[in-house]
Amino acid sequence: MKRLSVEAPDGAALRLDAFLREKIPELSRSAAQKLIEDGMVLKNGKALRKNHKVSEGEVFEVMLPELRETETSAENIPLDVVYEDGDVIVVNKPKGMVVHPAAGHESGTLVNALLHHCGDSLSGIGGEKRPGIVHRIDKDTSGLIIAAKNDKAHRALAEQLKDHSLSRVYHALVTGNIRTDSGTVDAPIGRHPTDRKRMAVTAKNSRGAVTHYEVLARYNGITYVRCRLETGRTHQIRVHMASIGHPILGDTVYGRKKPEKGLDGQCLHAKEISFTHPSTGERLTLSCDLPEYFMEIIRKLERA
Fold first, then answer.
1. 148 - beta bridge partners?
2. Which of 67, 240, 272, 290 could connect to 211 by a Cys-Cys bridge, CB 3.0–4.6 Å?
3. How does pLDDT run across 70-90, given as a tens digit for each residue?
4. Which of 10, 38, 80, 138 is catalytic?
């Protein structure tokens, strides 16, 4: 059992579960709630409820469970490894691969592949032996994703994700002609009010989200853009670009409902990632080429 002492900063006014999610970035909201429900979060030796309102200066003792084996199986799935050492691994995820196992996708995921590739070199944040997925990208988005191979690296990368020093750059094809050469979408994102499977720009139960974009090329009815995430909300680029009238080409959730001819999924690629190495302190910037399907669409647009 690992014990952490966590103190509330100035101006704290969150529910306990939300506070723990912010203070210990590697914990998901559900994991924080489970810790509280299991009596693993104490104040002055007494267990608290998840709706406890955190006040400035309060000190909590958080007990993280010991590492346990995951039920997810290791699978020998080829990986395009862009960088790897004893602390981190950066993979160029292909379009169509799910990151985490879930209902309907219990196998063939990035986690299944990492379990096979990394063996025992995995982070155990949250008490479960698993590759330390620090951030996620959608099934139909290709590109770079980083995972931690030990708890120290996981915590360091999660903190960088929280303070926005872990930088991620995406390339995308969007519908319509963006007239300005660059811009910023600063709009909060939360669950769609009527469709819980979608996200939306909304002021209700949302979190701040900022996306910076610049135009790389303009074609007939299509714009090629570079997007840099300042925050990392679910579906952020897809939601933000749709909110300004330029949804991602091929995105049938936030854009045109009818699939584009010859295109399966959205044209969105995580091309670059930059972070401070958790052990050496060196700033690393890694990139990968656009996938062939993306390049073929650009070639067709250029010919047209």
1. 88, 132
2. 240
3. 567 889 999 999 999 999 999
4. 138
